[in-house]
Amino acid sequence: MDIKTKIFWLVFTLVFVGSIAYAYWSFVMQRDFIIVNQAECDPTIDLCFYWACDPLATEEGEKCTGDPDEDEWYYKIQKRRAYNVRDCSIDDADCDAFTCNVGEKDCEEIFCTEETKISEEGICSDPVTYNREHPEEGDEGLNMEGLEEDDADAEGVMDVEELM
To answer: Which of 35, 62, 87, 90 sits in a 20 to 30 Å window from 135, CA-based?
Structure first.
């Protein structure tokens, strides 16, 4: 091999090894990536994403169980940098690893809107409609009948941008 070929392979090897080392340092050591989480969402006050089981599914996680509490799920999407997520035990029910700190960069909760629907088949829950269709016993003081769709923000639905 001539000197030019040796220099080429030396530079190529150094760039290759350097890029692998930087990626390892960035992702593993610094935990510099975003984690996306689906968390419980309260459909009585928030615009939540809605998931329902598939009655024709054959996979275990997609099958219907017959229990309405397990066959449908209301959720929101949380995004946060991995280095800001607290390490918690699975058994620790009080650990809220995805709560954003005030002014935290790259941390957000995403609620269901027309712009954030994951697919065309995505369904958003509306607090006004949900409360009308699922009246809770003991909610005599909460009258949602007179509310319009546009009044949902007045009932506690906040946009993440409003908080920051």
So the answer is: 62
Report d(CA 52, CA 73) in Å as an integer: 6
Measured in whole angstroms, how far is the alpha carbon of residue 162 from the centre of its chain? 18
The pTM (predicted TM-score) of the whole model is 0.63
Give dist(CA 100, CA 97) in Å, integer.
9
Residue 33 to residue 128: CA distance in whole angstroms: 36
Q: Six-digit token pair at 50? A: 């809605």
The Cα 11–Cα 5 span in angstroms is 10
pLDDT digits (tens, 9 = 90+) for 114-163: 888 766 567 888 888 888 887 775 444 444 444 444 444 433 444 433 43
Q: How far apart are CA 38 and CA 73, in angstroms?
A: 10
E strand residue ranges, the chain:
34-40, 49-52, 72-81, 108-110, 123-124
What whole-number distance in Å separates Cα of residue 149 and Cα of residue 10?
Answer: 65
**Who's near 121: CB < 8 A, 6+ residues apart?**
none
The number of residues in the chain equals: 164
Helix/strand/coil for 37 = strand
